[in-house]
Design a protein that fits this description.
The structure holds two protein chains of two kinds. In chain A, 23% of the residues lie in helices and 33% in strands. Chain A has eight helices and 21 strands. In chain A, the strands form four sheets. Chain A has a six-stranded mixed beta sheet with strand order 6-7-8-3-9-10, with helices on both faces. Chain A has a six-stranded antiparallel beta sheet with strand order 13-12-11-14-20-21. The two termini of chain A are 24 Å apart. By secondary structure, chain B is mostly helical. In chain B, 74% of the residues lie in helices and 1% in strands. A two-stranded antiparallel sheet of chain B has the order 1-2. The two termini of chain B are 33 Å apart. Classes of the chains: A alpha+beta, B mainly alpha. Chains A and B meet through strand 6 and helix 2 of A and helix 9 and helix 10 of B.
Chain lengths: 369, 284
């Protein structure tokens, strides 16, 4: 269990054990276990269809659970209907009630849970103050911008007494600058309130920015759960290696000769375990693949792997370059924007082997380092 | 097109020719004594004076207002309940909806005649049931309240179209509203009261006013066939009075004054409708 950081004023703990969730007979999540400490920010990232939203709905009580245990603050909540588990939720579209003004949207839940109107209004006004939406309280949701609506939705979730909020892709419908602003806002509010935050997203930038730990989810199973830098540097398997990073890690199939690993005949100088699996994949991040553009007669094998530049995507100060290896392998690396290299020119790619990883090609798991 | 409004000209001309001119003609006719055969004779405001002092007009007007309001209220409440049941959305419900719409496919005369049998105080099933439940229960159908209630029932039970409209309106409410309500701890009744009802309110209002105008103006078939306006004019309706004045007593002038009054009331209701709907829309 990782330590919770930050002041946990009222954060709840969440424990999930061996969870299985089915939807219309399909198994969406199977055997998932997860622990959140009080006040922790955990982000689950994964492609669409990986079961992220389904997991949140199961935790909130919106979907039945086929097997497993969900505990909040140590208490099994599965008998409790949604709304009585003390969970606030933020959705992709703000999901404000269209016939109520902002203030009534904020007090709606408090009153539904039995709070008196005057007290609910007090709390809503205080929350609006914290969120910086005080002047909007009397407005209709339709009169708000997307970012303002999502702030109100966050306020509604934070007004839950339970200290656990679930965020289901809350920023995915906003434009990039607004996403960045709201990420700041989320961090500030989470620190100010100390709530435990379980956030799902398909956006790895969002995951990296918001998660103290990140879980990578694929086809209903947790692939890896670790702090962002660990995930980036030491992905547990090829799925995580590909999913994280923009672009993802280069994965290169290697040849094996006894105990030697070869790439088109060149020896790969990489320490590896004594017993290698049948086939091995080398993983290297684009930024760890150095491009030698000056091809002189003096260029030798030790200067890296031969490749041909297929395409360049200029991205401001540098370009993302797509190369073809000798057997048509797809390799990606960065070049300065003004690098003197023509399309289709031949280059050599020099991997920084101290940064390279080895994976079992069949099972996908990392075997070295 | 420089004046897009001109595109609505054919409709406007049709409305003027088919509704505006006849209405003006009716208003003009109220100033004459006319039996449909001889030449009309100028009568000035005689018919309007007669109308102001006519106890049967007042009786018919209050009957019409009462029965139209009560039957529309009954229809909306029943239709809302049925629409809520059907909106849970199972395959079976398509059949149920078809059954509800069936009375609309039947001519009003048949609908009313069926009720004539159902409500017959001597041998109708309703009378038999009332007799079984209460001592001399069927006699209640012969009272003023019984006759009025029968009309309210006959008109109020025509719920098929209203159910259909409410079902569609209910489907327009975004599903996330209900998910949010569940997450926020709102129970089923709370969801109905705090979400469904307010979001259906504009449609309910529209239906209430439209149905009131329609029922008030045109629904005299049941009273003509089932209760014959009786007992003692207790279920006698304004359109029935207009019909009898014109086609039975051939007092077209007086009938025109009655019709014009009815039209004014309906126009008043429609103006109110416009006002309320505009307010409901700006509120949202």
């Amino acid at each position: 269990m990782s330590a919770a950081t930050g002041p946990a004023k009222r954060g709840a703990t969440l424990e999930i054990r061996d969870l299985r969730v089915e939807r219309d007979g399909d198994v969406i999540i199977d055997g998932l276990s997860l622990d959140l400490a009080a006040g922790e920010r955990l982000v689950l990232a994964g492609p669409s269809g990986s079961g992220k939203s389904t997991l949140l709905q199961a935790i909130a009580g919106l979907l039945p659970v086929a097997r497993g245990v969900i505990r909040i603050n140590g208490i099994d909540v599965q008998r409790q209907p949604a709304g009585q588990r003390g969970i606030g939720m933020v959705f992709q579209d703000a999901a404000l009630l269209p016939h109520l003004c902002v203030r009534d949207n904020l007090t709606f839940g408090l009153q539904a849970r039995g709070m008196r109107r005057a007290r609910a209004r007090q709390q809503a006004d205080a929350m609006a103050e914290l969120l910086g939406i005080g002047p909007l309280l009397a407005r209709a949701p339709q009169a708000l911008s997307g970012g303002e609506q999502q702030r109100v939705a966050l306020g509604r979730a934070l007004l839950h007494e339970g200290g656990l909020i679930l965020l289901d892709e809350p920023l995915s419908q906003l434009d990039a600058p607004l996403r960045a602003r709201l990420r700041d806002e989320f961090l500030r509010l989470q620190a100010a309130t100390g709530v435990t935050m379980l956030h799902v997203t398909h956006d790895q930038q969002e995951a990296m920015a918001l998660g103290q730990r990140i879980g990578i989810l694929d086809r209903g199973a947790l692939q890896q759960l670790a702090p962002p830098q660990t995930l980036y540097r030491e992905p547990a398997n090829t799925f995580v290696a590909r999913f994280l990073g923009n672009p993802g890690m280069n994965l290169i199939a290697l040849d094996r000769q006894q105990d030697e690993l070869l790439w088109h005949g060149a020896k790969v100088p990489l320490p590896h375990p004594a017993s290698l699996p049948a086939s091995v994949v080398l993983g290297i991040r684009p930024e760890d693949l150095h491009v030698h553009t000056a091809m002189s007669a003096a260029t030798t094998e030790s200067d890296g792997w031969p490749a041909q530049l297929r395409r360049r995507e200029p991205l401001g100060d540098r370009s993302l370059c797509y190369f073809d290896g000798p057997a048509g392998e797809n390799l990606q690396a960065w070049l300065p924007i003004d690098a003197p290299v023509a399309d289709a020119s031949r280059v050599r790619l020099q991997p920084d082997f101290s940064r390279a990883l080895l994976f079992d090609a069949v099972r996908g798991t990392r075997i070295a380092p | 097109m420089r004046h897009p409004a001109l595109l609505s000209l054919p409709l406007l001309l049709g409305l003027i020719a088919l509704i505006g001119l006849p209405a003006l003609g009716t208003l003009a006719l109220s100033g004459f004594i006319f039996d449909g055969l001889g030449a009309p004779q100028w009568a000035g405001l005689k018919h309007w004076q007669q109308l102001a002092a006519d106890p049967l007009f007042r009786q018919a007007l209050s009957n019409s207002l009462l029965i139209a309001s009560a039957s529309v209220a009954l229809r909306l409440v029943l239709a809302l309940a049925v629409a809520m049941l059907l909106s849970t959305g199972q395959a079976l419900h398509r059949g149920a909806l078809l059954l509800l719409l069936l009375p609309l496919a039947v001519p009003g005369l048949v609908w009313a005649t069926a009720w004539l049998w159902l409500l017959n105080p001597h041998f109708g099933p309703v009378a038999t049931l009332l007799d079984a439940l209460f001592f001399r229960g069927s006699e209640w159908l012969l009272t003023a309240a019984g006759a009025r209630s029968s009309l309210v029932l006959i008109l109020g039970l025509l719920i098929g179209e209203t159910v259909l409209i409410l079902l569609i309106a209910r489907r327009q409410i975004p599903g996330h509203c209900y998910i949010v309500a569940r997450v926020e701890g709102m129970g089923a009744f709370g969801q109905f009261r705090r979400i469904t009802l307010p979001l259906l309110a504009p449609v309910l209002l529209l239906l209430a006013l439209r149905d009131f105008a329609l029922t008030f103006q045109t629904s005299f078939l049941p009273s003509q066939i089932v209760t014959k306006g009786g007992p003692q004019f207790a279920s006698y309706l304004l359109p029935q009075y207009v019909y009898e004045n014109s086609f039975e007593y051939l007092r077209f002038g007086y009938a025109a004054a009655l019709s014009s009054t009815m039209l004014l009331i309906v126009v008043g209701v429609l103006l109110m409708q416009g006002l309320l709907i505009r307010r409901a829309i700006t509120l949202r």
